[in-house]
């Protein structure tokens, strides 16, 4: 990367809480959020306690799909945490790079029902502005007066992490002084969940929803779909220091790759994910042995966990402590990499690795050290892995401040 990137602000909206303190407490306590969704007849991890009217104003909230609502609230928390004032900053030097896998399917599905039952003239004129993926970054820019580079990254479930990587590049190229980076997703609609179910990707532990998401466990049977948003404020370390900002941690490297193998399955040897991991370490000027913690993609599917576990055992034979926070949050799709980047920043900042919730018996074919309890660890260098359908991989390297 050529520069040090400081993380000066953090914001989260997830199924375990609205706000960073609530999230960190929940993942460290290993409190799962999965519940049975009677409407969609599926397990899911939904954001609760989120009052969009109170947080955004009733009129504004009505004109926004939930995936944008989540991002605006997470971004506001991150900006406040960074002690930045949007009304006073040079907006042309502030970029927004956010990721999502889908956009606003809730809006599309509801308006399609209107189209079928009431006709085209009853469809909302806000249909497109509400559901288009690019509106995620567009709305955040409008809310906070960020007139610099503005884009949405779509690399499926690697989108959030890819966005952080792209933001780091913008800072390195001096295109921006501040970037709001992360991801947001709200895909828990009947049609979307039906599609994942038909693929055989979802857990069917309907009678035990809280234990359904169980990364690396011998009895895992699929992921639990979730929703939420994570936003990080990124600045060049020198700029953060000059303004006296509090730095949570540093993003010191990133690696991106493609499996170029299958539309949904990971390349079975993990060669693509290995390439991204090694590229992140090279970017950080580090070696595999420097890694002390990994926040794994760890979806709780049979194929992903086996492939990722084998890759980590091969590339990091010194056995750093691995966790998957998806046991608590479920799989947040395009927001997953951003939310997990925030958790990894907090792990580095606090010297604490959260446990992997619901892991009761490690799959005997997985030979890595997975955190069974929340542990105090001197996190000198941490990696967070994100992989997406289509074989798109992103790995971030994070170090303490």
TrEMBL record:
<protein>
    <submittedName>
        <fullName>Beta-ketoacyl-[acyl-carrier-protein] synthase family protein</fullName>
        <ecNumber>2.3.1.-</ecNumber>
    </submittedName>
</protein>
<dbReference type="InterPro" id="IPR000794">
    <property type="entry name" value="Beta-ketoacyl_synthase"/>
</dbReference>
<dbReference type="GO" id="GO:0016746">
    <property type="term" value="F:acyltransferase activity"/>
</dbReference>
<dbReference type="Pfam" id="PF00109">
    <property type="entry name" value="ketoacyl-synt"/>
</dbReference>
<keyword id="KW-0012">Acyltransferase</keyword>
<dbReference type="InterPro" id="IPR014031">
    <property type="entry name" value="Ketoacyl_synth_C"/>
</dbReference>
<dbReference type="InterPro" id="IPR014030">
    <property type="entry name" value="Ketoacyl_synth_N"/>
</dbReference>
<dbReference type="InterPro" id="IPR018201">
    <property type="entry name" value="Ketoacyl_synth_AS"/>
</dbReference>
<comment type="similarity">
    <text>Belongs to the thiolase-like superfamily. Beta-ketoacyl-ACP synthases family.</text>
</comment>
<keyword id="KW-0808">Transferase</keyword>
<dbReference type="InterPro" id="IPR020841">
    <property type="entry name" value="PKS_Beta-ketoAc_synthase_dom"/>
</dbReference>
<dbReference type="Pfam" id="PF02801">
    <property type="entry name" value="Ketoacyl-synt_C"/>
</dbReference>
<feature type="domain" description="Ketosynthase family 3 (KS3)">
    <location>
        <begin position="2"/>
        <end position="400"/>
    </location>
</feature>
<dbReference type="InterPro" id="IPR016039">
    <property type="entry name" value="Thiolase-like"/>
</dbReference>
